[in-house]
Write a structure and sequence with these properties.
The complex is a heterotrimer of chains A (392), B (184) and C (476).
Chain A lengths: L2 H29 L1 H32 L2 H14 L2 H19 L11 H6 L5 H32 L3 H28 L12 H24 L5 H4 L2 H32 L6 H7 L3 H21 L1 H5 L1 H23 L12 H23 L17 H4 L4
Helix pairs in contact in A: 1-2, 1-15, 2-3, 2-4, 2-7, 2-8, 2-14, 2-15, 3-8, 3-15, 4-6, 6-7, 7-8, 8-10, 8-14, 10-12, 12-14
Chain B lengths: L4 H4 L2 E8 L2 H14 L4 E4 L7 H4 L7 H27 L12 H28 L12 H6 L5 E6 L7 H9 L5 E6 L1
Antiparallel strand pairs in B: 1-3, 1-4, 2-3
Chain C lengths: L2 H8 L17 H13 L7 H27 L14 H12 L2 H11 L6 H24 L26 H34 L3 H11 L6 H34 L11 H27 L8 H31 L3 H12 L3 H13 L7 H4 L2 H27 L15 H24 L5 H13 L14
Helix pairs in contact in C: 2-17, 3-16, 4-6, 4-10, 4-15, 5-6, 5-9, 6-7, 6-16, 7-8, 7-9, 9-10, 10-11, 10-15, 11-12, 12-13, 13-15
The chains are: A mainly alpha (392), B alpha+beta (184), C mainly alpha (476).
C-alpha cells in the first residue's frame, strides 16, 4: 500500500470515529446540557491546543531557526491550518454553551459585585467578538505563511525564508498576546473571581509541549519512509528531545511559580483555585501530575541515549501527550465540578469525537503538500521534487 | 606493575610534534592499532575523536555529579525539614511544620551547589591536577608551544611494547616535525 | 617584546561585518598573541585611556568606603529608609546588580547548550562581569542588616541559642541562591580560564609572570584525557548553571511576590524578573564590550555580528518585560480588587509617577529602535541604547520597591521616600568598585577565551568538509 492510500485510509477511519463520537455526545446534549458542554469544552481546549501550539512552534521556529524545525515544519503548518475546523468546533460553545458553563454569564452573577465590576470584559457579546478576532488574527498569519511556504516550494527563492522570518517576528508578538487573552477568556474565566498574571504564559507553554510531543510521534512514524529517511539523523531527534525537555522544565517552572506564590500568599481571592484542585479527590490527580508530568519525564529526558533513540523518544512523546491530556483535564474540570471528583463517560467520548475530526482534517491538510519543504536550506539536504511529492 | 628497563633508566617516553591536529589524530590511531596503550596526546584545543583514538572513553565525571547532586538534594530538603519539624518546630502564620513547597528553592540550590562542586573538584582530581611538575614540560618545544599551536603525541616508557629505538622509528614514520626523548 | 610587536598592538583592527564571528587570517598562534598581549604587554604600553578610566573608577569607589564607614558608625538612619518604605536603595541596587550578573552565566551556559558560536568572543568577559556584579549585589543586603557584623546569623548553623533561620521566608532562600550563584559563577569562570592561563604561562616572557599564571594554571598540559573530562565537566556545569541562573532571579522575585503586598504579590514576577535580568545583563555587556573592543583594537574578534546578536537578545527580553507590565496592568483591573487597582493607578500617576513614565520610556519605548538593523549596527547609538536600558532597569526596581511600599493600606500610614546623599554615595561607589575590577580584569587576564577561539578557527576551517555520521556518544 502506498503512503497516499494509507493516508486516505487513516483519514477515513478518523473521520468515522470522530463523527460517531460526536453523534454519541449528542445524546448527552438531550440528557444534561451542562454536562455536555463541560466535557466538550475540555475536548475543544485539548485539540485546539494542538492547533494553537502548532502556530506557536511554527512562528518560533521561523524566528530562531534551527535544523529541528525544518523536519517538523509541514506538521506544524498543517496543524496551524486546522484553524477553520477548530473555529467551527468552537461555535457550539459560542452560540449555546456560554451561559451553561461560564458562571459570569449566569443570572446569579448579577448579585456579585466583583463579577459586575468585570462585566465590561466578561460579557457574552464581548466573549464572542474576541474569539472571532483571535481566530482572524491567527488565520491571517497562517494564511500568509502558507502562501509564502507554497511560493518557496514552487520557486526556491532563498529570500522567502527571510520574509517568513520578518513576518513571524511581529506575528509571534501578536500571537502571544492574543493567545494569552484567549486562554483568559476560555479557561481562566470559568472561575471569574480568580486571576493570575502568569496564566497565559503557563498555558501556552503547556500547549507547545503538547504540540512538540505530537510532532515527535509523527516524525518517528514517518522516519523510515521517503523523504524523511534521507534527511533525518540522530541529531534531529536529539534536538527535539532536548526541546521537549526544555518545555517540560518551562512548564514546571511556570506552574511551580504560580503555585508557590499563591500558596504562600494564601489570599481568599486566589487560593480557591488550588483548593478546588486539591480537595474532593482532585488532589490525587494533582499529585499524579506533579510526579508524572514533571519528575518522571524530566529524569528520563535527561538521559542522552533516550533522546538519540527514536523508538524510545517515541514512547516518551506518547507518554507526554497522554499526561498533557490529564493536566488539561485537571485545569479545566475542577472549575465546573465543585469539590467532587468524577469522570463522566463524556470526558472520554468527547475528546475522541473531536480528536477524530481533528486528525482527519489534519491529515487532509498534511497530504495536500509535500511532506518536507522542498527548498528549506536548513534541511541540509534538499529532497528531489519527485521523491518528496510522492503524495500529491 | 614492574617498571620497564627504559622506565628505570629515567626515560618518561618519546614524543612526536605535529603541526596539524589531523596528523596527530592519524598518528594516534596508528599507534593504538600498533598496540601502544600507555600514551597521551597533548593539544592546545580539544580535538573531537582524539580520546577515542587513544582508547580513552569513560570519564566518570557524570557519575560524580549524579552522586553530588543527589546528596545536595536530600541534604537540602532534609536540613529544612529537620529545622522546621524537629529542631525548631514553631507555628508560623498557621503554616504546616513541614511546609514543603517553601523548601523547593533551597533544595534546588543545594542540589546545584553540590553537583557543581563535585563536577569541578572531581574533574581536577581525576586529572591529577594541580600538579607542579610533569616530565613532558622537559621538552622545550612542548613548554613553548603545546598550549599555543602545536600538537604532541607521547608514547610512555611504561608501555609493555615500548622500545626506545623502535618507538622512535615508529613515530618518525608518522610525518612529525620532530621526535624527542623525554626524561623523567 | 620587540618594537614591531608593540606597534602591532596599536594597529586598528577591521570589523569583518555581521556574517563573521572572527576576522580573516587568524591562526592559532596569532589569535593567542592578539588576546594574550592585551594582558602581557609591558606596563608602559598600556593605553592612557585605561589609566584615566581606572583612576575615575577608583575615585568613585571611595564613595562606597566613606558611605559604608559612616553607615556602620551611625546606623541605617543615614539612609532615606523610613516606615512604610523600609526597603530603599539597598534592595533596588541589590536587584539591579544581581540582574546584571545574569548575562555572564546566560551567555556562557545557555548559549553553549544552544550551540551559538557567537558566544565565544564575549563569554569570558561576561562571566567576569557576572562575578563582579554579584560581588556588588552581595554587599547590599549585608549593609542593610542594621548589624552587618552578625550577617552569619542568616546561615543555618548550630548555635548555643538553638535558633534556626526561618526557611519559609524567601529572604533565607536568597541567602542560599546568591551564595550558590556566586560560587558556581566563580567555578565556571575559573574552569574556563585554566587552559588559557596555561597559554599565558607559556607565552609570558618574565619569570614572575610565568610563575603567577603558572600557579593558577595548576600545571595544565593539554592532555587529551584531561580535555575529555574537562569538556564533560564544563558541559555539566553549563547544564547546571542554566536552571541555576533562572532560579536566582526567580528567588529574588519571590522576595517580593511571596508577600501579599499589591504590586509585589503577582504570579508573573518570576519569568518577568528573569527576562528583565537578562535584558539588563546584556545591556551591561554591551556597555562594557563596546569601549573595550575599541580600546584594545579587538574589532576583528568582537565583531558587529556579536553586537547585532546581543541587540536582538535585548529586544526579545525587553518585549517579555513589556508583556509582564501589560499583564500586571490588566490583572490589576481584572482582579476587581480595590487595592490592586489603586496601587497601579498610583504607580503611574502618584508622587512617583515620573519614575514610572521614565521607566516606560527607557525600558519599552526607546529600545524599540532595536527593530532597525541600521540601529543595531550603529555602534555609538547601540552604546547609548545600552546605557538607556541600564537606567531603565534600575528604574524598574525603583518603581517596584518604592511605589508599592509608600502607600500602605491605611492612609494614616502613608509616607514618602527620599534617598539621602549616602544612598547615592554607596550606589555610585559600587559602580566604581565594579569598574575598577573590570579594568583590572581586562589588563591582567585573557578577556576572551583563547582556546575556544582556536576551536572556532578549527570549525571554520572544517566547515566545508563532510561531517562524520552522528552516532551515540561514548562516555556519558
Amino acid at each position: 500500500m502506498t503512503l497516499a492510500e494509507q493516508f486516505k485510509r487513516i483519514q477515513r477511519m478518523a473521520a468515522i470515529v470522530g463523527v460517531l463520537g460526536l453523534a454519541l455526545c449528542l445524546i448527552e446534549l438531550f440528557v444534561d446540557r451542562a454536562q455536555f458542554f463541560q466535557s466538550y469544552l475540555f475536548a475543544f481546549i485539548f485539540w485546539n491546543g494542538l492547533t494553537v501550539g502548532s502556530l506557536a512552534v511554527y512562528l518560533l521556529h521561523n524566528v530562531v531557526g534551527g535544523n529541528w524545525g525544518a523536519v517538523i515544519r509541514r506538521f506544524v503548518e498543517a496543524g496551524a491550518r486546522t484553524l477553520p475546523l477548530t473555529f467551527v468546533l468552537l461555535l457550539p460553545i459560542l452560540l449555546f454553551g456560554i451561559p451553561l458553563i461560564y458562571s459570569w454569564a449566569q443570572p446569579e452573577a448579577a448579585h456579585d459585585a466583583n463579577i459586575q465590576f468585570k462585566s465590561p470584559y466578561l460579557n457574552i457579546p464581548g466573549f464572542i467578538m474576541r474569539a472571532v478576532v483571535y481566530f482572524l488574527i491567527w488565520g491571517f498569519y497562517t494564511y500568509r505563511l502558507t502562501r509564502l511556504s507554497d511560493a518557496q516550494d514552487r520557486t526556491g527563492d532563498p529570500m522567502i525564508q527571510e520574509r517568513m522570518r520578518r513576518l513571524s517576528t511581529f506575528g509571534l508578538l501578536i500571537f502571544v498576546l492574543t493567545a494569552t487573552f484567549a486562554f483568559i477568556d476560555w479557561i481562566m474565566s470559568l472561575e471569574p473571581h480568580w486571576y493570575s498574571t502568569i496564566y497565559g504564559a503557563m498555558f501556552l507553554v503547556g500547549q507547545m509541549l503538547e504540540t512538540l510531543a505530537f510532532c515527535i510521534i509523527l516524525l518517528v512514524l514517518f522516519s523510515k519512509r521517503k523523504p524523511f529517511v534521507q534527511v533525518l539523523n540522530y541529531q534531529h531527534f536529539h534536538d527535539l528531545g532536548n526541546l521537549m525537555l526544555a518545555f517540560t522544565m518551562l512548564w514546571a517552572y511556570t506552574s511551580l511559580s504560580q503555585f508557590l506564590i499563591i500558596w504562600a500568599g494564601n489570599l481568599p481571592e486566589e487560593i480557591p483555585w488550588y483548593i478546588r484542585r486539591f480537595t474532593g479527590g482532585w488532589g490525587y490527580l494533582g499529585w499524579f501530575i506533579g510526579v508524572f508530568h514533571f519528575c518522571v519525564p524530566f529524569v528520563i529526558l535527561l538521559m542522552r541515549f533516550v533522546k538519540k533513540n527514536p523508538n524510545l523518544l517515541y514512547k516518551v512523546a506518547i507518554y507526554m501527550f497522554f499526561v498533557r491530556f490529564i493536566d488539561i483535564f485537571w485545569i479545566v474540570e475542577p472549575a465546573l465540578r465543585q469539590r467532587r471528583f468524577y469522570v463522566h463517560w463524556m470526558d472520554i467520548v468527547a475528546p475522541i469525537g473531536v480528536g477524530g475530526v481533528w486528525i482527519a482534517f489534519f491529515l487532509w491538510q498534511l497530504s495536500s503538500r509535500p511532506l518536507l519543504p522542498l527548498h528549506d536550506a536548513r534541511l541540509g539536504y534538499l529532497p528531489l521534487e519527485t521523491e518528496a511529492a510522492e503524495l500529491t | 606493575m614492574a617498571d620497564s628497563f627504559w622506565d628505570r633508566h629515567g626515560l618518561y617516553g618519546v614524543m612526536a610534534e605535529f603541526a596539524e591536529p589531523e596528523e596527530l589524530l592519524a598518528a594516534a590511531e596508528k599507534a593504538y592499532g600498533f598496540g601502544y596503550r600507555k600514551m597521551d596526546a597533548y593539544t592546545p584545543l580539544p580535538i573531537e575523536g582524539l580520546s577515542d583514538a587513544i582508547g580513552f572513553t569513560r570519564t566518570f565525571v557524570s557519575t560524580f555529579v549524579l552522586i553530588g547532586g543527589s546528596l545536595g538534594c536530600m541534604g537540602g530538603f532534609g536540613l529544612l525539614y529537620w529545622i522546621t519539624k524537629i529542631a525548631y518546630a514553631h507555628n508560623v502564620a498557621g503554616r504546616p511544620f513541614n511546609s514543603w513547597p517553601a523548601y523547593i528553592p533551597v533544595t534546588f540550590e543545594c542540589t546545584v551547589l553540590l553537583a557543581s562542586l563535585t563536577a569541578v573538584i572531581g574533574m581536577f582530581a581525576l586529572n591529577g591536577l594541580p600538579q607542579p611538575y610533569h616530565p613532558v614540560f622537559n621538552n622545550p618545544e612542548f613548554s613553548a608551544r603545546a598550549s599555543i599551536d602545536r600538537f604532541f603525541l607521547c608514547i610512555e616508557a611504561t608501555d609493555p611494547s615500548f622500545d626506545l629505538v623502535k618507538t622512535k622509528a615508529f613515530l618518525a614514520e608518522q610525518n612529525p616535525l620532530e621526535v624527542a626523548e623525554i626524561e623523567k | 617584546m620587540k618594537v614591531e610587536e608593540l606597534e602591532a598592538l596599536e594597529k586598528p583592527a577591521i570589523d569583518p561585518g555581521t556574517d563573521h564571528i572572527v576576522g580573516p587570517g587568524f591562526t592559532n598562534a596569532t589569535v593567542t598573541d592578539k588576546i594574550a598581549n592585551v594582558a602581557l604587554r609591558p606596563f608602559r604600553s598600556t593605553p592612557m585611556v585605561w589609566f584615566l578610566g581606572i583612576g575615575i573608577a577608583f575615585m568613585l569607589m571611595q564613595g562606597l568606603l566613606i558611605g559604608s564607614a559612616w553607615l556602620f558608625y551611625k546606623g541605617v538612619g543615614v539612609w532615606g529608609v523610613v516606615i512604610p518604605v523600609a526597603w530603599g536603595f539597598a534592595i533596588v541596587n541589590f536587584v539591579w546588580w544581581i540582574g546584571i550578573g545574569h548575562a555572564g552565566t546566560l551567555i556562557s551556559a545557555i548559549l553553549l547548550l544552544l550551540k551559538q558560536d557567537w558566544r565565544t568572543s564575549i563569554n569570558r568577559f561576561a562571566e567576569a562581569m557576572t562575578l563582579f556584579a554579584v560581588a556588588q549585589a552581595g554587599m547590599f543586603p549585608i549593609l542593610h542588616l542594621g548589624r552587618p557584623w552578625l550577617f552569619y546569623w542568616l546561615m543555618p548553623y548550630p548555635n548555643s541559642m538553638w535558633l534556626w533561620p526561618q526557611p519559609r521566608s524567601p529572604l533565607i532562600w536568597d541567602v542560599f541562591a546568591v551564595s550558590t550563584y556566586a560560587t558556581v559563577s566563580l567555578l565556571f569562570w575559573y574552569v574556563g580560564l585554566v587552559p588559557d592561563l596555561a597559554s599565558m604561562r607559556d607565552r609570558a616572557t618574565k619569570l614572575w609572570q610565568k610563575r603567577a599564571y603558572g600557579l593558577f594554571a595548576l600545571g595544565w598540559r593539554g592532555s587529551t584525557k584531561h580535555w575529555t573530562r574537562y569538556q564533560m565537566a564544563y558541559l555539566l556545569l553549563a547544564g547546571l548553571a542554566t536552571p541555576l541562573v533562572i532560579s536566582v532571579h526567580t528567588v529574588v522575585s519571590f522576595d517580593f511576590a511571596i508577600s501579599i503586598l499589591p504590586g509585589w504579590h503577582t504570579t508573573i514576577f518570576p519569568p518577568y524578573f528573569v527576562a528583565g535580568a537578562i535584558y539588563s545583563g546584556f545591556a551591561m555587556v554591551l556597555t562594557l564590550a563596546i569601549p573595550t573592543r575599541k580600546l584594545f583594537h579587538l574589532e576583528d574578534i568582537i565583531t558587529s555580528r556579536h553586537l547585532d546578536s546581543m541587540a536582538k537578545v535585548m529586544l526579545g527580553t525587553g518585549l517579555i518585560v513589556a508583556y509582564g507590565y501589560m499583564m500586571e496592568a490588566f490583572m490589576a483591573w481584572y482582579s476587581g480588587q480595590f487595592y490592586e487597582r489603586f496601587m497601579y493607578l498610583n504607580r503611574a500617576t502618584g508622587p512617583y509617577g515620573w519614575s514610572y513614565l521614565m521607566l516606560i520610556a527607557c525600558n519599552i519605548a526607546i529600545p524599540q529602535l532595536l527593530w532597525l538593523r541600521s540601529v543595531r549596527l550603529n555602534v555609538p547609538i547601540l552604546f547609548m541604547l545600552s546605557l538607556v536600558i541600564n537606567v531603565g532597569m534600575w528604574l524598574e526596581r525603583f518603581v517596584i520597591v518604592i511605589t508599592s511600599l509608600h502607600r500602605d493600606w491605611l492612609p494614616s500610614s502613608w509616607g514618602e521616600y527620599h534617598p539621602t546623599e549616602f544612598d547615592w554615595m554607596i550606589f555610585a561607589g559600587t559602580i566604581g568598585f565594579f569598574l575598577t575590577l573590570m579594568f583590572l580584569f581586562v589588563r591582567i587576564l585573557p578577556a576572551i577565551s583563547i582556546f575556544e577561539m582556536r576551536e572556532v578557527l578549527h570549525h571554520i576551517k572544517h566547515r566545508h568538509e563532510p561531517q562524520p555520521a552522528p552516532g551515540p556518544a561514548h562516555g556519558d
